[in-house]
Amino acid sequence: MKKSNLLALALTTAAASSFGAGFSLFQGDTTGCADAAGSIAKGGRAGDLYYNPATMSSVTGTVVQTGSFFTRPHLKIEGTDPYTGTKHRAAGKKEWFAIPHLYLTSQVADDLWVGVGLFSRMGLGDQFPDGWFGRYNSTEVDIVTFDVAPTLAWRATDWLTIGAGVTLQYFGIVLEQDIDAAGVAGMRPYNAPYPDSPLDVHQNIHGRDDLAVGWDLGVKIDPIERLHLGLAYHSKVEVRAKGHARYDVPAPVKAAYPAFFGDTKIKGGIDEPDYWMGAVVYDFTDRLSLGFNVTRTGWSSWDELVIEQEKAFLPGHGELRSVKDWNDVWRFSVGGSYKLDENWTALASYTWDDSPINRKHADYLVPADTREIYALGLSWEDGPWAIDGMYFFEKINDCSFGGRPQEGILEGKYTGGFSHAFALSASYRF
Q: Could you give the CA distance from residue 388 to residue 67 in angstroms, rounded to a whole number?
């Protein structure tokens, strides 16, 4: 039986915004957002090591690259009150999310490169208004990861480069939700979304893991002129988090049950998924390149959540457990680049990104169905400088799911999900 940590608790209870299947992030580099196949199989930017460490062999000299991805997701949630049949609608808070990155690569010999990347592979966040119908599942969630990845690339032959690296990750989470104390006491139907109860207890969970470790491997193959192949593997990262749960208890509840809802320490763990990334790119002319990318994400590692509490906040509630049973998923993209002139290059791609969530166990999590992404990019190079820009539109398919009132989940669906996003980065070659 696999366990999951505070991260899993957040994902079990949050309607959230992330930017890939589950809570994966694929926005590690601006050109990679616009043309992932090119970043995996061909390279050209320091940030391509996010996708395939072997692509450093396409970057000469010493290069520093920095930038950020920005997005403003939108998603509506509908739910039906199991006690009255009333239909309710809500939406998460509209706000901008930023995913920054920083890379340094250097060619230290004719056949050897070293580099380091600072980025995030996982992220999640959303906030709902007070009193919304899913408050007994989530009111706010923030998951932040920060990865430092020292990397090496070795050109073994004229047509083969091998890359490898280590990922050191910081993980942090903030999760908030309400507990229906009146329902627990039998004073009303448990987790009834309306009317609001003045006896709701507010739960606030914080947790972190200061050092989780993973590793990366990649190859870049140029078997014949104009053909480029890339394959990369990013390992699971085992997060083992510790933290605390704190409770904001209304005075009547505190007076009636002074031994309940005490602050406590919590702990748990999750294996973040591994990734296989493969791509092929062909240069049809000196100006035009087209490619195809496929990514497999191993979300089957998450079958169940278990959160251990040092002190139960209610009798018999010393452990939080929920079945997830997520699936491995595939992400496909087609794209390419066209060199407009000596300085300017245009990029474009289409991506189909499957959802790992088992609808039998769906909840107020990430937007829970397949995504389609349409991306456009533009790059400029002149001497040591390079500037990259990208825009994409992400459409999230509607998704229906059953209700589980005991978990604060109403029968309903996600609907109208989309996001507009852009990225900017700058590189300088010394």
A: 9
